[in-house]
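Q: I'm building a small set of examples for a reading group on sequence design. Run inverse folding on the following structure and report the sequence directly after it, with nothing in between.
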């Protein structure tokens, strides 16, 4: 076979092989699994929380004697229908109730949700003594809203949390008159913290 014929055959084979070369693949995307509300299954509605101390309680004057501390955390579900919470305290005695109230810092406001002993609007016994750690956790829904939020959707509470006009406080009472005699006996609230939006 001549050299020219070999070149022609080689060229034809090369052309045939190159026409069958794989083409670049198109970009691909991974679908996001969505729940029935159309939101991502791994999304959440938001995280909120606050540290609590006696320094944030505006009254009475001697509440600052308390070394009690606390922390409240909240997580909204993706649908915006349930707010799970956890309430933690330390160095405190005689807690008989805790709530979310609505007001700006330094001002006392009405109760909008009960947190301790539970979301039911019933106080615990007085003079229980020292308590610490996680003292309450649960789920808040629109059915748990009281006071100025009673009968409203949960979004009304969430709006307060987002705009900084809600706080958590824990109330103490030793069960012996008079009140406000010192740590463990501040029925109006011994520790408090303004709730902050901490993102998703």
């Amino acid at each position: 076979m001549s050299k020219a014929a070999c070149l022609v055959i080689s060229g034809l084979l090369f052309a045939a092989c190159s026409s069958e070369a794989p083409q670049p693949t198109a970009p691909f995307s991974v679908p996001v699994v969505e729940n029935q509300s159309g939101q991502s299954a791994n999304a959440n509605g938001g995280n909120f929380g606050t540290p609590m101390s006696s320094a944030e309680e505006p009254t009475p004057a001697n509440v600052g004697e308390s070394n009690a501390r606390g922390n409240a955390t909240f997580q909204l579900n993706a649908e915006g229908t349930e707010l799970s919470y956890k309430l933690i305290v330390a160095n405190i005695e005689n807690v008989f109730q805790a709530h979310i109230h609505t007001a700006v810092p330094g001002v006392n406001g009405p109760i909008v949700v009960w947190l301790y002993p539970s979301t039911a609007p019933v106080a615990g016994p007085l003079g229980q003594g020292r308590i610490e750690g996680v003292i309450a956790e649960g789920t808040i829904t629109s059915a748990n809203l009281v006071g100025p939020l009673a009968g409203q959707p949960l979004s009304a509470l969430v709006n307060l949390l987002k705009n900084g006009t809600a706080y958590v406080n824990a109330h103490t009472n030793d069960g012996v008159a008079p009140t406000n005699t010192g740590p463990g006996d501040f029925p109006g609230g011994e520790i408090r913290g303004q709730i902050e939006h901490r993102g998703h």
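The longest strand covers residues 83-93.
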